[in-house]
Records
---
Amino acid sequence: MNASRMDFPLKLEHSYAKQLPGFFVSLEPTPVPKPSLLHFNTPLAIELGFDCEKLTPNVTQQLFSGNVLPSDAQPIAQAYAGHQFGNFVPQLGDGRALLLGEVLDQTGKRRDVALKGSGVTPFSRGGDGKAAVGPVLREYLIGEAMHALGIPTTRALAAVATGEHVMRERQLPGAVLTRVASSHIRVGTFQYFAARGQVESVRKLADYVIQRHYPDVSEDRNCYLSLLRVVVERQAELIARWMLVGFIHGVMNTDNMAVSGETIDYGPCAFMEAYDPDTVFSSIDHAGRYAYGNQPAIALWNLTRFAETLLPLLGQESSEQAVTDATAILDTFMSTFQNLWYNGARTKLGLTHSEKPTTTSDAERTLIDDWFELLAKHDVDHTLGWRYLADAADGNACNLQALFPKPAELDIFLKRWRGLQDDVSRPKAATKIRATNPLYVPRNHLVEEALSAATDDGNLKPFETLLHAIQRPFTEDPQFTQYALPASTEFTANYRTFCGT
Ligand code: AMP
Ligand code: MG
């Protein structure tokens, strides 16, 4: 049965479907019994150029549940493969998502609009094609938090409850998420065609990605090598930025790594509390493959899989030359990551200013290493440990000292830190620290409280309040005092997150 159609308050385009036939399956969403709007992202809708006046709650919930399609939608499920926990699965694909089309946002940037949880597709592999309210709101919250922290990310435009139950470990209320992304092209999309020996498809995909995301490299002599270079750089930057706010993605499979450099797929992700590089929250990550501190190594592993898919396109002279060239680029990942990581940490310490060299000095690197070691040794909350440095820069180290069981070691560190501040950076340090170190991140206990209230009682208030708090992460607000505080150590020690949502 064909879904009914209505005018959409925004024009949809279909460059992916037009330029890449054979890369997807066309099908419509499965209708849901009783759609009701949980949340709509008006600021994002405005950014995309929606005529919000036309989006009454009824229209919104019909459109973003998939019950009514925009008249110009051409819904497709995209094919992709992927390495899951290191094991290659030749066919994954959109098992519960459909791309409705692309919009050109207010700045002219092309962005995908896709439904997630919209029913089974040929890629569902026995799954029900659905999503539950909890994970949908979780993706909404964490994506908005990342966006507010200035980290490239896919974002939620709408969350709509479906009025039906989905079966997980127990019956849960169902929902559909509308996701906006620079694109949904993953490392796994390349792998899908490479694994089938379809070199021309890989080339078409690479050409499409260059044109859509990296037009600057299109004229390069070996544009595919340049593509590898920019994707490597973007990922190094993304992972550095994640880690500087204590983010753990949790399931960095190659199908969950977008070649655009945006964070995608908020499943078992979580923010770290006490600083510990070995932190893992995901219930299925027994070996700690996706632990906080392992994220750069895993990103490089995934990028190596990406490079392998491009090899047949790189060999202008010989295939050995292609391997040498690709390896040389992959070899830059760790140093690029480390430079960005140290530079980011230097800014977080309030040590940067416009007249200073852009690279972190050896003395600053040692200070940064020692700071992390102190945080780890004393189980200091990552978010507050950094944030309270601002008060210390203002001459009040009490809050910071309270986080350290043995403040003497902190005092030695603070002395060294002040020693590295110069006359230009010192007066502005506190403001700079507050502008780069958030006070509010979506803490795990708060996220869980918000999701439980929505799931068990249909109460969206905790979700809305938390969303409000994390949307302005750098600005202290007395109404959100509780939201800055860590969970109990007991809660964090027992906290587990889940995939397969
Ligand atoms: P994820 O763990 O969300 O990255 O998903 C991995 C793969 O499983 C993708 O191909 C998804 O489309 C698919 N998948 C996840 N959950 C479901 C579901 N409930 N029904 C069908 N496919 C699913
Ligand atoms: Mg995924």
---
Amino acid sequence: MQIVNGTPVFEGIAIGKIRYFSGGEYRMRQYLVSNVKKETLAFARARTMVRDELSHLCNSAGSRNPELGRSLQRQVALLDGESFASAVESLIVTQKISAAYAVALTRQDMNVTFHGLTDPVARARLRDVREVSDYLIESLGGVNERIDLGDEPVILAADSLDLPDLMEMDHDKILAVITRSGSEISHTAIITKTRGIPSMFGLSPCPEWDGVTAIVDSYSGVVYLSPDEEELKEYTLRKEEDERERNLLLRLREKEDRTLDGKKIELYANIGSLEDLGSVEYYGAGGIGLLRSEFQYLGRDSCPGENELFQAYRHVAQTMGEKPVYIRTADLGAEKQASYLRLDSESNPIMGNRGIRLSLAREEMFRAQLRAIYRASVYGNLALMYPMITSLEEIDEIEEQIRIVKEDLTKNNIPYLDIPTGIMIETPAAVIMASELASRVSFVSLGTNDLTQYTLAMDRQNPALRSRYDSHHPAVLRMIRMVIWAAHQQGKKVTICGELAADTALTAEFLRMGVDALSMVPASILPVRRQLRATDLSRI
Ligand code: PEP
Ligand code: MG
């Protein structure tokens, strides 16, 4: 048994087999094709091209590097031979799939066949298949697939786990996530928390961990690799105990969010997709305080259209009924990238064309989202808010877009409601301008994740800054107090929707500051509710 330590992101216990995920894997989505002949020809062309390139490389570099030469010769032989090629061709023909996907499937089949063999010849052959497949897929223009984690749920181990990769995975198949790099408030962490997946970073997973049985205890930040019988028995019991405690907490589901001295505040859930809706109800949230709408734009090849967005918002609105749903318009850019957006590469994306700036630069895309939200507004209790606001001019520009959208809806007799609009306060500029900004909208919502990173000038995702990244920094807390005061002067309510809202060490302080609502990952609602119901503001 080996014991390794890491930093907890979301607490829980998981027992299972590790699946090591290397980010370099092709992420492929199955493409069905109508023209099988075209795909077969494309494969033949790619096969010849890759074969000629490898043969050329073998002639030029093989004599200087005999080992490389031998490997290239084997790869050329693999492409010349019939077995690999006919396996691919038969998949194209029988399953009517794209050439690239057929190569990927063949690669996967061979991986399964040769996996676990220790014979050096078999292992070299497996490596050849992988490399040749990669070249072929690349020359076929690549292909995407939902990342396949296998049939059984696994503990996902990776050096680092990017948001787009995580978005391509089936989260029901993930028992826990353990990585080397990471941060508690990265969007990857926010997703694992939202889905209630125990997670940790600061470990050093490697490919050898693949297939190994492990226990993840993210309460104490420990991972046991190949645990012995005794450890397994103990953790099976602990896991059951953990589930019992969670069930006890569930008794608070129906309880009111009121302090001992009678102050009422709202506890809302932060969600990123329709799949999270179940947990909003499960944990007894009073509404959705932050719908990170951009997640619907990620992990796909094309931008969602107005109707697709409308259907999603209508579904959320109808499911939540009278409970409020605050939809944040797409906060894309920075680490939330999608290839179809064709964003320019930026030297400093955290400070780049992101959030509302990107929406205002892509007017059509923005208006499609606004139209979808307004169309859905008649089905529930929706509110609209904008990310990464820095100025009053941005509000002017947004209002102009809303005016165009409403005018068009009216002209076409499409019903909509004049829903409340608000801003997220995530930049020091917005804090300073809180009073003027609040006077222009119906509510404000404090995004403390970004507010902290911009105030401290520290990237929220950079693990190297972890020891200095102080989310309780007095500057941040003072800013929160300033914003609450300024907004209340304008008669506007304030929500905190960054990760800090779930920090029970600050619940009493936020209440003293006068915050009106706290919005957090669904699984944090009950611990915060317990804390707030035990708080007596008249005594502190
Ligand atoms: C925030 O910045 O605090 C916030 C809620 O938005 P996100 O975490 O999605 O950037
Ligand atoms: Mg933010």
